[in-house]
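Budget justification note: compute hours in this period were largely spent on complex prediction jobs such as the one shown. Inputs:
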Amino acid sequence: MNEFENLKGFYDRYPSEWVAWRELVDTVEETAREFGFRELDAPSVEPTDLFRVKSGEDIVEETYSFVDKGGREVTLIPEQTPTRARLVQQRKDLGTPIKWFDTSKRWRYEAVQKGRDREFFQTDFDIFGVESVEADAEIIACAGTIFEKLDVADSVEFKLNDRQLLDALLRGLGVGESKDVMRVIDKKEKISRKEFLGKLEAEGVDRETAEEIDELTAISGEMESALVELSNKAPESEAADEAIGRMHDLYNALSAYGVESMCRFDLSIVRGMDYYTGLVFEAFATESDLRALFGGGRYDDLIGQFGSRDVPAIGFAFGYSPTMQLLKELGEWPDETISTDAYVLTISDSVHEIGLKYAMDLRRGGLKVETNLTDRSVGEQFGYADRINAKYTIVVGERDLNEGVVTVQNMASGDEKQIPKDQVVEHVLNLL
Amino acid sequence: MNEFENLKGFYDRYPSEWVAWRELVDTVEETAREFGFRELDAPSVEPTDLFRVKSGEDIVEETYSFVDKGGREVTLIPEQTPTRARLVQQRKDLGTPIKWFDTSKRWRYEAVQKGRDREFFQTDFDIFGVESVEADAEIIACAGTIFEKLDVADSVEFKLNDRQLLDALLRGLGVGESKDVMRVIDKKEKISRKEFLGKLEAEGVDRETAEEIDELTAISGEMESALVELSNKAPESEAADEAIGRMHDLYNALSAYGVESMCRFDLSIVRGMDYYTGLVFEAFATESDLRALFGGGRYDDLIGQFGSRDVPAIGFAFGYSPTMQLLKELGEWPDETISTDAYVLTISDSVHEIGLKYAMDLRRGGLKVETNLTDRSVGEQFGYADRINAKYTIVVGERDLNEGVVTVQNMASGDEKQIPKDQVVEHVLNLL
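Corresponding output:
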């Protein structure tokens, strides 16, 4: 018969592969917890209208959206921000800061290609209800700590900008409608200088100002010196001075957290989405041609569109696929190997139940234990113990038991030791 | 504006509620790992045809099934068994036993009512590739250990039966097509004796045999004595004797695991689904009118329907909602309270960055730490520390720092202690 396949863009992750994923997810979630983010759980399916608020009608084409049996238009969530907006709006009693994380699956109906999965994991981090630089700094510090824990902090950098700062600078140069100009700046990295200037002129910016914008948005680098350069080159503007001051405060906080060396100021970072209102940042791999690992920013005006109260917000969504690629490139992807603390080997049927008792007592001690479920020979059992990477094999045999002992074999060294039969569990627990 | 709501049958779980869920999920997964089950990850959406194999065309009506933008009929997985069958078939190289678990969401389009959610979590446990009683016993022992860890083992019992045993007994009584009769037995608990006998007669069983079936299927209770009773009452049959012997072996293994006191033999347990081929079991709450917590069994013929090789299998799906209800009834549901190890309080802006350093160093020590993100007063900060249940508040103030100390306050007792400022992190790490 025909065998079945999974859908394109969806993944089967067998246990050995999943071991490595699990380690990565655990690192991300452990960091979230240490920073005081609280885990929540929310639906994977929402009314399509919820996504229209932020993304308009296009969202229907880009997602798994369908009409359910009750006639409701529903969508497999492509992101969790609209859901979180709903959750923040429906519980006015929540004290601030509201700091949330969770890891869950998201779905997008995309052309299947490398790095564009139709089903993917994300861990969303958000701080709601606080407008301060301190919240901005905490978000960056948290993201930076993830890479520290993954031992790749030296190979990752955060490019930071502030939309309010950019807006103030543009206004200082006489640009009225800064959003259209920002969209051009967002594309700057991908186009030639000539094209860049042309596109600015197409937005009604005169040639001279376009050149000034080109020069200003070239400012990037180590934060402290970039901010000095910016102060020197910036047009006179109170708003700009204020925004530069805020960026200085951010730098000081990032230094206190010890993550300032991962951060660069880059005035050309805008991020595509219109809803960002302040800090924007993207994580890049410095020694790789990977696209941005992920990005985030402040979106103080978005939550208010989902209900009756305005709530400032800053966050990012940690995406797993690009980080997985980076870790593989750097040789830091965890081993795709299952692990087992102990295998209980039984030499004959007559000792099978004694073997089960040992297995159970070791498990009660918190160990990961397997034992013989079939009528395998001693050799086959050792082969299985090796295959599941058992650290120790507990060999239970009738002759040994009659002499009051059980043999414990270290599977790496091959060393074996006879242990009094009533001290086996304690002995193995102490070894591990 | 109108605020948004989640879909009916879907749940928002805010952090305080989720704390308790997380504890339950962690207990289930920890048990799985200790028993040597390996975690995997698989798609949440599969081709609808995959579910038709096991469940026929009805599955379309009972699930979130729709046609995607590429014209594919797809389904949000209502269970993971068909996916696992696919995974087992597509990797012929996997050595046995294949022991898998994972916790993920499932979806069913059901009439919304208590205990019937449209989106729900399940942890599936399966052992593939092993036909032995040992695998049966390990599955039950694993399920039993979950309830031991939840401190409710005394209030849960597993009703066990073996379809092959029941089949042998029915054949011994002259019943030819035992599957139809088993379907009647499956309903026995819910109908009167008269109805039961009538339904058996409607299946072509004569009155006398129907009464014998009624008597036999009344056998239930502590396994050892029930098996003695069964041996006495069973019609002469080699197949029945063999099946009774197998149940004895299972009892011995369950005793070795120490979970036999949770197990009862019950010849009326059949489980609805036709695909079970051997052991069947259901977990019940003994002091509650909750329906079965979950059930499982052996299904040796199912995997072969998904591909070219036959693979014996036994498993169960741990369902969370009924267990949650049980734990609540028994007062064993974990506290719905967020927890925090330390809050770093800063008395003035001037010490803010020193506070950030302490917070970061405590986090590097693995603690869950929050600090001040706004311009809150000392009183407001203590209020916040209390609200997030911080165990300790580290009070950083300029005057203290000038004297070389920081104050650490135990939030439960109110005791405070001045600690040399360079020993604060070590001190707090030692306290926790």
